[in-house]
Amino acid sequence: MEVRFGRSLAFCCALLILFAGLSHRSTEAQGSVHAASLPPVEITLLTEDGGRADWSHALDLIAYDRMGSDGYYDVHLMTPQGVEGPCITCDNPLLPNRNIGNPAWHPYGAYLAIQVEKLAHDGNPASASPGLGINNDIWIIRRDGQQAIQITDVAEGMGVLHPHFSHDGSKLLWAERVADGSNPSGLWLLRLLDLGDPARLDRHAMQLTSYAPMGLAFYESHGFSPDDTQILFTAHDMLYTPNRSWMDIYALELETLRLRRLTYSPAVWDEHAQFSPDGQYITWISSQGCNCYPLDPRDIATELFMMRADGSEKTQLTTLNAALLPGMPNQVAADHAWNAAGSSLVLYVQDASEQRPLEGKLVRVDFPAIGTGLSQEDHGME
Known about the structure:
Distance between the termini: 44 Å
Number of domains: 1
Strand order of the largest sheet: 1-14-13-12-11
Order of helices and strands: EEEEEEEEEEEEEEEEEEEEEEEEEH
Low-confidence stretches: 5-31, 375-382
Number of strands: 25
CATH architecture: 6 Propeller
Shape: globular
Mean pLDDT: 85
CATH superfamily: TolB, C-terminal domain
CATH topology: Neuraminidase
Largest sheet: 5 strands, mixed
Strand content: 35-45%
Helix content: under 10%
Radius of gyration: 19 Å
């Protein structure tokens, strides 16, 4: 296995607890978000009982995780109109029947990558849910559930998060916890698995490369650029502000290891970045302007934002928290995925709560003025 470090690891010995000394509330940073220029979007509820989701461009189907009556998550299918399909992991004899979630479609539509909780471990149930991924492994499962391959076998207390296939189907990206650290999140790497022939899924032909572009830190993988030359991820900003560490969005060029920081907002929670299908834009979620304390799970509030692929022209897309009635929980925009046309995306919206795992719903966000894709020339997005 090859490990590629984009920066020196010397600073790692001086890591401090991630959130030490943080007490202020998140407000709009640097005046870089143009809330007044909100492009028109329409939001349609798909299900009140949803989770992390991915949208197959080949099949026009949504895969998502949902907690069942047994208290564990499983992976279900749904149409973009919210018509529920089968559960592909429920009581599957090929899998440990505990938490299974965070599905990601292979571009051919025949397979999905999933997170699967180990059958036996010493961790607590909440940390093993798909959103936290401790004592989880990466598996690949056929869409009909008739074949499943275990890809990782992490040690006790380690874990994985957010698998994503490349657009050509030849690679699989995820984040993996590899060690405890001086912070609650632990130390993580970005893993990139070359699948060899993606149609055969031969484990013996697969080769693994690991990336730590900011040294050993917390990383969360988000996916590939349309040409598969870059990956997007979130990381805690230990390198730039070692005493204050928040989530920011980065892009890494796989060939050159050039690292680009796309958000710089030390008191703001930024996460879940995705390229638009044409590669011109990136959507992500942020607590910008929330007047909240993002590290308090009862107080955090996030919205969906969009920026150009170079990080410029950051714009808020949703106003989920604008008209909440008294007593209603804050809304936390989270994981999301685009359709093939670039005209809609599926968005996981959680209810802010100190209880884990969080409850949430799935909505479809449509761009009616855009119609068939994000085109700045045709639709005035300049």
